[in-house]
Amino acid sequence: MALKNHELVHNYVLMGLSHAEQTQIEDAYWAPIEQNTGQDIDGFLRDYQTRDFENVEVPGRREFVGTVGPEAVRTRYVGKSVRTCFSRGAQNPITYVNIPI
What we know:
Layout: H1 5-14, H2 19-37, H3 41-49, H4 71-75
């Protein structure tokens, strides 16, 4: 069976490194990428590889640039529903909602 694109990238990145270096890269970078992208890791890698790092302001492209919030703010709404913040059938993936902190 042929390797998937992300498996090829993974092998290429780790190729030639010592076992300790491979483990460090795997734990610090690769595992979090897999955890955060799930089944769409190939799509993530494609988008990341084609990103224009010289020109961050790309018309029509949105991204979050900032810092991770405090733990208290990040965990406050875990397991809570935001159903009341959106009208039924709302399909815009980017919606700004005023939620009291």
